[in-house]
Write a structure and sequence with these properties.
alpha+beta; 6-stranded antiparallel beta sheet; 4 helices; globular
Length: 126
């Protein structure tokens, strides 16, 4: 399947801009890096090197992503037991970045926000 999306380079600045555009998102420095939260629950972190970011991802889906696209997704050793996955910025386009961040936001958002924004980050029906 060929992708018709352009491969415009995305950066950590795009991660910040898109994350903060999601409803009720706040930014907080933790462990010396920017983290983004909804209702106090973290859904994105951006490590110091700014070449990747981490998002919430159910372990079953995470393992499938890593196997299917190892150049894009991986699991840091210290996150192996948690439901987080790392994503390489250079492997993404803007649409993918938006989809991934919105999906992670949905996993952290409280039911009230999910009800208020039912389509945000929902899987595509294509």
């Amino acid at each position: 399947m060929s992708k018709s999306r352009s491969r415009a380079r995305v950066t950590s600045h795009d991660v910040r801009r898109i994350a903060l555009s999601l409803p009720e998102t706040t930014e907080k420095i933790a462990w010396g890096m920017p983290t983004f939260r909804v209702a106090g629950k973290m859904f994105v972190t951006v490590p110091d090197d700014e070449t990747s970011f981490a998002v919430r991802c159910p372990k079953v889906e995470r393992d499938e992503l890593v196997l299917a696209e190892p150049d894009k997704f991986w699991v840091a050793a210290h996150e192996a037991g948690s439901a987080w996955v790392r994503v390489r910025l250079a492997a993404l386009d803007g649409d993918e970045l938006t989809d991934i961040l919105a999906d992670s936001w949905r996993q952290a958002a409280p039911p009230r926000l999910l009800d208020e924004h039912p389509g945000l980050g929902a899987p595509s029906t294509e």
